[in-house]
Amino acid sequence: MSRKLFIAGNWKMNTTLQSGLDLANGLKETIGSIDEIELAFFPPAVYLKSICDAVAGSNIGVGAQNMYFEDSGAFTGEISGAMVKDTGCKYVLLGHSERRHVFGETDEMINRKVLKALSDGLHVVLAVGELLEEREAGKTMEVNERQIRIGLEGVDAAAMSNVTIAYEPVWAIGTGKTASPEQAQETHAKIRQLLEKLYNADVAAATRIQYGGSMKPSNAAELLGQPDVDGGLIGGASLKVEDFTALVKAGL
Ligand code: PGA
Fold first, then answer.
1. Residue 1 confidence class, pLDDT cut points 50, 70, 90
2. pLDDT band at 69; cut points 50, 70, 90
3. Which of 41, 103, 128, 168 to mutate to test the pocket of ligand 1 (most atoms within 8 A of CB)?
4. pLDDT in tens, 42-54
5. Does domain 6-249 have CATH number 1.10.287.70?
6. How far is CA 175 from CA 8, 167, 199, 212, 240, in A?
């Protein structure tokens, strides 16, 4: 089965309203009509509506970097899946390593968010990945398996068509240290085997697994050329029109 590549820019806590609009408008020009690759931006929550409006009519989708698992109420500082949808978003990123390691999100919390986002009709990008010490201790797959198994608890095979996995080794995020194409391929293949074990061969074959962690124009073609690497989740290189354009074009 051939999987459509899915490349997304995670803007993190960057841009102003104006620089975000400039970035979105610039990329709409350069890559907005590409349909061989699924494309998305994850801007800061306060700019979601503006960025959705800016890319309307192009092939670029927009998503939130996080959401909460309740519908409404006394949850100061949080946003719901319905609010995310209301801005025009199709996607939500959940379980990013910064949410896990800076903000203390647990696998169980992330699982509740995944279930809520799917029931709210959002496509979930579930990010997983091991820390450097976990890789050095030989625990790479143990950690990724735990994050995926718990993160997807209660998600049935049919709902998996609305889930993308982003494998992001934490030691490669924002560090300039990319996983080698072989290291990425090895873990991606094991994640796919895990999906077969948790679901079935069809789900394993159809689910996109993005790579994230210092992916840039110079290494994108090689990473995206691996058989089990189905796209990328891009931080730093998603913040400049030239870089993200070149990176996406490397996947064509
Ligand atoms: P990076 O970030 O591309 O800057 O390493 C990736 C991510 O955190 O999603």
1. low
2. very high
3. 168
4. 999 999 999 999 9
5. no
6. 19, 16, 34, 12, 18
